[in-house]
Amino acid sequence: MSSTFFIPAVNIMGTDCLDEAMIAIRNYGFRKALIVTDAGLAKAGVASMIAEKLAMQDIDSVIYDGAKPNPNVDNVEKGLALLQQSDCDFVVSLGGGSPHDCAKGIALCATNGGHIGDYEGVDQSSRPQLPLVAINTTAGTASEMTRFCIITDESRHVKMAIVDRNVTPLLSVNDPSLMVGMPKGLTAATGMDALTHAIEAYVSTAATPITDACAIKAIELISANLRLAVRDGSDKARGKTWRTRNFLPGWPSTMRPWVSCMPWRTNWAVSTTCPTACATRCCCPTCKASTPASAPNA
Fold first, then answer.
1. 8-state DSSP, 265
2. How much is the mean pLDDT over the chain?
3. Among 9, 44, 171, 265, which residue's CB has the most CB atoms within a 10 Å radius?
4. pLDDT of residue 126
């Protein structure tokens, strides 16, 4: 049986690599970006900082901070409307899994038309999405480098899985400088998220020697670094390891279409009505024991 991987064509990783990424973005010839992020990063000034760095490369931008935890259909539609009104020619996702997934939904609908629900399932789109640059600020799902887009349909109380080669970002950016200083609860919850992905990749019936190698290394890195990262989130050196351990468990998921870890499947259902961090603690005994009580509010 053959194996196929879908990952961004370019993946820039390393402390303070953001400026290098900006040059790479300029070289694509883009004119105007829709920056998709959440209210927290917008309020903290991170989105404005990205807009300023783009402006230094003569790239205009507009910020959409409507990506909610477990982004829903309405989040995608409002972002798409702003993109069209602003005449943007590419999308920048800034944050963790929620902004990345929301941005994927926006970019896919921008070129394929219709409703995001039209693309639920595997490879339902006919055209590549609008170019997407995924700038990561946390670690967990590795959505910045996968072909997965998870959007909540609140009318049906389901999380739609859009598994499509056309939602794979063009460029991913993992700069540990953007990850330092995260709240302890968020660091712990996303760390357990990444660990769950690594374990379920390893036990998946679709595993290969390559995915096993990535999964095992990710488990080793998380085991060695999660507790210390929670204790001291300002450690940039440890952040270098942290962004790698986020990328590694995401790589296997670019090949295997469905997860096999039962706590994660249960988490999937529960998180349609409460934050993912809360669902992770509720559904996985290991996560519940290891994650601070503050995590559900992260």
1. H
2. 82
3. 171
4. 96
Examine the pLDDT at 87 and tell me if it is beyond 60. yes
For 92, the enclosing helix (H) or strand (E) is strand 90-95
Amino acid found at 74: D
Mean pLDDT of 149-174: 95
Give the predicted TM-score (pTM) of the model. 0.81
User: For 196-227, what is each residue's pLDDT tens digit?
Assistant: 888 988 898 888 888 888 889 888 888 888 88
Instruction: Check: CB of residue 232 under 8 Å from CB of residue 238.
Output: yes
Place of tokens 């055209």: 127
**Cα distances (Å, whole numbers) of residue 41 to 46, 64, 214, 264:** 5, 11, 30, 26
Whether residue 102 contacts residue 36, with contact meaning beta carbons closer than 8 Å, is answered with yes
**Do 295 and 278 contact (CB within 8 A), yes or no?**
yes
Closest CA to 173 of 285, 55, 50, 44: 50
What three-state secondary structure class fits 195?
helix
Q: Which residues pair with 132 in a beta bridge?
A: 91
What's the angle, vertex CA 10, arms to CA 9 and CA 15, rounded to 5? 160
SS (H, E, C) 146-179: CCEEEEEECCCCEEEEEECHHHCCCEEEECHHHC
**pLDDT given at position 248:** 54
Which residues share a beta bridge with 159?
152
Would the pLDDT of 259 be above 50? no
Please choose, from the candidates 242, 199, 246, the residue with its C-alpha nearest in 3D space to the C-alpha of residue 97.
246
Average pLDDT over residues 158-178: 93
CA dist 26 and 190 (Å) reads: 31
| 147 closest CA partner among 125, 167, 175 | 167
Count the Cβ atoms, other than its own, within 10 Å of residue 253: 27
Domain boundaries, the chain: 10-178, 184-293
How many angstroms separate the Cα of 79 from the Cα of each of 56, 133, 149, 164?
A: 24, 16, 15, 20
CATH superfamily of 184-293: Dehydroquinate synthase-like - alpha domain (1.20.1090.10)
